[in-house]
Write a structure and sequence with these properties.
OB fold (Dihydrolipoamide Acetyltransferase, E2P), eight-stranded mixed beta sheet, binds 4-amino-1,4-dioxobutan-2-aminium adenosine-5'-monophosphate
């Protein structure tokens, strides 16, 4: 046999067929001297393999060898698929393999810092197991992140990062189909792009520099260079001291910038079509992975509308006011009011995904275009999933003199961004765009409670390894 079968593809249809699989020995159990069970896991899917001593096929030594495999060792298994008469508990696949050959390809050390079975249980399963007096080690988040390579092996994590891969895939495919050009902007830049002090400063051959807080300035410069519509998937660095469930010091930005023909709503149209397409795709094509995530971290599928709700900031303030939450109409929403508004929107409009637009100018970055009809507001928006921000976007100021004025008003040292400002002196089209955080999109789509769960190797103020 040369063709390999994936453990996740082992179904009743393969009954009595000979198969070859590679996976890890998740658990082993001997039953007397003539039989051993090895649960083999591959990419989060598990199958029970039965090693029975049989003359000329499987020796007693082979049974002993199988029962003695250290957990997480890599094994190749040859055998025939069988369907047991009673349902199998504890594996994802409902068939077994009657083993004829078993090879250990690589041996794991005998004791591991994380037990994958324990690390895969839901909170409810942990409570039940502890209640039943089972010996169980609750695997906390720091331990998971310290031994991330082992932690990746849970079915939920296999699902999370495959979903993440599809989010990037749809983002790219959709934008390419809408005539966007993929670009790669520098991550070593001379000064802050979003304002504030949240930059990682560094020495660039004797010159002051920093890690890019976003591709903002360079994606706009690409528009000045006539690329028309651009996007980027790349790292973003923020030095802010935020110890929260949704802030990282390095995350992956999904950025878009485009010419605007008439109105900044054109940018919101792209957000709407792109994300509805993405959610539809994830629900249809990633159900196996969503189920794997939900088994460990139960969540309700995201409620969203075929045409994304757009709410004006002022309407949001009014809804909050009617619900007894007073906020400054020219200030920003805080985490609490964002959540509350998310609830109110869900009750009134039946969606957990919506766009809030026309934010007060005072709370937006210097490059944001004020509203033509009322400069206290701006042509800008944030997008929310389950009451938390995943995107911010806006039309940009493309008039250089005004841009200088706005930068100075926001306390930016204009000399650090002079080449950016000069880009608009050679003729620049009206334009706008947005930036989404990949980890937040996946976290909130899957209803997870911490961004560290959706970052491969998270970087936060306390962690730079592994
Ligand atoms: O709201 P932000 O800071 O906006 C920008 O960077 C603009 N240049 C975008 C634009 O085109 N106007 O960041 C955009 C998104 C946020 O909505 C959030 O999803 C994510 O990036 N984000 C973070 N994700 C993880 N950790 C952090 N510290 C984040 N800060 C922002």
């Amino acid at each position: 046999l040369k063709a390999w079968t994936q453990v996740g593809d082992l179904t009743h249809e393969l009954k009595e067929k000979e198969v070859l699989i590679r996976g890890r020995a998740q658990t082993t159990r001997a039953v007397g001297k003539n039989m051993a069970f090895v649960v083999v896991r591959e990419k989060g899917f598990t199958v029970q393999c039965v090693v029975t001593a049989r003359p000329d096929v499987v020796s007693k030594q082979m049974v002993k060898f199988a029962a003695g495999l250290s957990r997480e060792s890599i094994v190749d298994i040859h055998g025939v698929v069988s369907v047991p008469s009673i349902a199998i508990k504890g594996t994802t696949q409902q068939v077994e393999i009657q083993v004829s050959k078993l090879y250990c390809i690589d041996k794991a050390m005998p004791t591991l810092p994380i037990n994958i079975e324990d690390a895969s249980r839901s909170e409810k399963e942990i409570e039940e197991a502890l209640g039943a007096g089972e010996q169980l080690v609750r695997v906390n988040q720091d331990t998971r992140l310290n031994y991330r390579v082992l932690d990746f092996r849970t079915s939920a994590n296999q699902g999370i990062f495959r979903i993440q891969c599809q989010v990037c895939n749809i983002f790219r495919q959709f934008l390419l189909s809408e005539n966007f050009v993929e670009i790669h902007t520098p991550k070593l830049i001379a000064g802050s792009s979003e304002g504030g002090s949240a930059v990682f400063k560094l020495d660039y051959k004797g010159q002051a520099a920093c890690l890019a807080q976003s591709p903002q300035l360079h994606k706009q410069m690409a528009i000045c260079g006539d690329f028309g519509r651009v996007f980027e998937i790349g790292p973003v660095f923020r030095a802010e001291d935020s110890y929260t469930h949704r802030h990282l010091c390095e995350f992956t930005g999904l950025d878009v910038e485009m010419e605007i023909k008439q109105h900044y709503t054109e940018v919101m149209d792209i957000v709407d079509h792109l994300f509805v397409t993405m959610f539809d795709h994830l629900n249809k094509k990633c159900s196996k992975y969503l189920e794997a995530v939900g088994r460990q971290y139960p969540f309700e599928p995201l409620k969203y509308l075929p045409k994304t709700l757009r709410l004006r900031f002022e309407e949001g303030v009014q809804m909050l006011k009617e619900a007894g939450v007073e906020i400054d109409p020219y200030g920003d929403l805080n985490t609490e009011s964002e959540r509350k508004l998310g609830q109110l929107v869900l009750e009134k409009y039946g969606t957990e995904f919506y766009i809030l637009h026309r934010y007060p100018l005072a709370v937006r970055p210097f490059y944001t275009m004020p509203c033509y009809d009322d400069p206290k507001y701006s042509n800008s928006f944030d997008v929310f999933i389950r009451g938390e921000e995943i995107i911010s976007g806006a039309q940009r100021v493309h008039v250089p003199e005004f841009l200088v004025e706005r930068a100075q008003a926001c306390g930016i040292d204009v000399s650090t961004i002079s080449t950016y400002i000069d880009s608009f002196r050679y003729g620049a089209p009206p334009h706008g765009g947005f930036g989404a955080g990949l980890e937040r999109v996946v976290m909130l789509f899957c209803g997870l409670n911490n961004i560290r769960k959706t970052s491969l190797f998270p970087r936060d103020p306390l962690r730079i390894a592994p």
